Structure formats: C-alpha cells, structure tokens
From TrEMBL:
GO MF term set: DNA binding
Gene3D superfamilies: Hemimethylated DNA-binding domain
Domain Hemimethylated DNA-binding, residue spans: 6-100
Cleavable signal peptide: none
UniProt keyword list: Stress response
SMART domains: YccV-like
Keyword Signal belongs to the record: no
Phosphoprotein found in the keyword field: no
Gene responsible for this protein: hspQ
Descriptive protein name: Heat shock protein HspQ
Amino acid sequence: MSKTQFARYNIGQVIRHRLYAMRGVIFDVDTSFAGTDDEPRTSGAATGLVYRLFAEDDEVPYVASIAERDLEPDESGEPVRHPGIGAMFEIGEAGRYRRRRLSMN
C-alpha cells in the first residue's frame, strides 16, 4: 500500500534551490518519484515529491524538475522573470502568483 504524501510547497509559490543560485515558481508537483512501501526508490533517482517550476538563474530562464529536499521558500519578494509564467499565472497581492482562471469558451 502506498503512503499519502503531502506537498510542503504550493502551486504558485516562489522557491529557491538550497545549493545553487536558482529560484522559480512552482507549476506542478510530480508524485511518480515517491515510490511505495513495497517498492521504494533506492537507486540514484530522486525520492519523494518532485516539483516542476519556471526557473531562472543568473543566465537564462528554463523549466526545472527539483526534488522537494533541495528546495526552500524564497522570501526575497523579487519577481521571477520567466516567459512561461504569464500564460499560467497572474500576479496577486504581495507579489504572489495565482493560477489564471481558464475560460470555457
């Protein structure tokens, strides 16, 4: 039986990598790396939740998949500059990113 995992971070939250000069906005959480009690992921692959994010570093914007254990909240209040953000998010109060509402027509 698989364990229920709760995401530490939220869609639209700005985070940064614990070790590298990278920050981004989360747009998806991937649980396929979580493994199960019967088949835990013990190889070199990431275990636990993996977050997909619109990321930026000092050079270029890109899309990244980062393990939860390698992330921490970004409290700088600085906007993330990635061309993909505008299609999925709008900027709300206090610089937070909110998913855009999709029109049904």
